[in-house]
Design a protein that fits this description.
alpha+beta; Aminopeptidase; six-stranded mixed sheet; about 45% strand
Length: about 120
């Protein structure tokens, strides 16, 4: 991946998840129009499978809802079937597929309930 994190740190939000004084994960988000884009969710490999990714995604949804945004969006590689299943189980729907960097990105969206 070619990401300029000097720029991302200035324009994106990064939230860390800490468990027992150890950073176990992070989520990178950025507001775009009326939605929050989840740019990256990363969990320490030794800590995967404990629900930390779900907690970070729920955190992003809470941020978006508190800001009055309409939806949360994310994208993943079409070959990451486990990720796609996870996001679908959390209420995300496939919006579109896009050729990207020699592969295919699956764009997913979850509409937020504005009555909260």
């Amino acid at each position: 991946m070619k990401v300029d994190y000097a720029v991302a740190l200035q324009s994106h939000r990064f939230d860390l998840l800490i468990d027992r004084e150890q950073v176990v994960g992070l989520i990178e988000t950025v507001r775009q129009d009326q939605h929050l884009l989840i740019v990256n969710v990363a969990i320490e490999p030794a800590c995967q499978g404990r629900g930390f990714g779900r907690r970070l995604i729920a955190h992003a949804e809470s941020l978006a809802s508190a800001s009055g945004l309409e939806s949360v969006r994310l994208y993943t590689n079409i070959h990451f079937a486990e990720n796609i299943r996870l996001y679908a189980s959390l209420g995300y729907e496939v919006e579109r597929e896009e050729a990207l960097n020699g592969g295919v990105a699956v764009h997913m969206t979850k509409k937020l309930d504005q009555r909260r």
